[in-house]
Write a structure and sequence with these properties.
Length: about 170
C-alpha cells in the first residue's frame, strides 16, 4: 500500500489535472468511447479544433486526423503504421476532404488499407494469397486496435507503444 500512495502523488494529479489557468502536462488522453488515445490537440485561428487519435494492436497502429468544425466532426486523414522491430513505419495513408467521421467508415477504410498493403507485399514476394484470408487477417488486426486500454493485458502493449505515441 505504501508504494501505491507514493506513486499517486499530488504532483501527478496537479500536472495531469491542473487548476484553471495553469499549464497541463502534455500527455495523451484515453477516450474509452472511441477506444483511442487523443493527442496533439490544437485550435486554429478560425476557432476550429483538431486532434490526432491513435489506436493500436501488436502489429499495426491506426492514426486518425480529426477536425471539429462548428457542430461537425470530420475525418481529415488516416495513417497506418507497422512495427519493423525498432520503430514505426508508415505503410498506408489516405487523406479525406469533407468526410464526416464515422467509426464504421474508419474500420472499413483501415481494413481496406491493410488488405492493399498485404496484397502489395505478396505481389512483391511473388506469393499468391487467398483474398478471404487477407480480409480475415485485416479484420482481426483492426478489431485488435479497438481493444480497451482498461483491459488487463493492455499494459504490456502500452509499454511497447509509448515511445511512438510521444513522437
Amino acid at each position: 500500500m505504501a508504494r501505491l500512495t507514493k506513486a499517486i502523488s499530488k504532483d501527478l494529479f496537479d500536472n495531469v489535472l491542473p487548476m484553471f489557468g495553469s499549464n497541463r502536462l502534455n500527455v495523451p488522453i484515453w477516450d474509452n468511447s472511441q477506444k483511442m488515445f487523443i493527442c496533439h490537440e490544437y485550435e486554429s485561428a478560425k476557432g476550429n479544433r483538431y486532434y490526432v487519435g491513435i489506436r493500436f494492436c501488436n502489429q499495426v497502429v491506426i492514426v486518425e486526423k480529426v477536425g471539429l468544425f462548428q457542430n461537425w466532426t470530420y475525418l481529415d486523414g488516416l495513417e497506418l503504421y507497422a512495427f519493423n522491430g525498432t520503430k514505426l513505419v508508415l505503410i498506408q495513408k489516405r487523406d479525406y476532404d469533407k468526410v464526416f467521421r464515422n467509426e464504421e467508415f474508419i474500420r472499413s477504410e483501415s481494413e481496406s488499407m491493410i488488405c492493399e498493403y498485404l496484397m502489395g507485399i505478396a505481389k512483391l514476394k511473388k506469393t499468391v494469397l487467398n483474398i478471404d484470408d487477407v480480409n480475415s487477417e485485416a479484420r482481426r488486426l483492426v478489431e485488435g486496435c479497438y481493444k480497451s486500454f482498461l483491459e488487463l493485458d493492455f499494459n504490456v502493449r502500452l509499454m511497447q507503444i509509448i515511445p511512438a505515441i510521444k513522437q
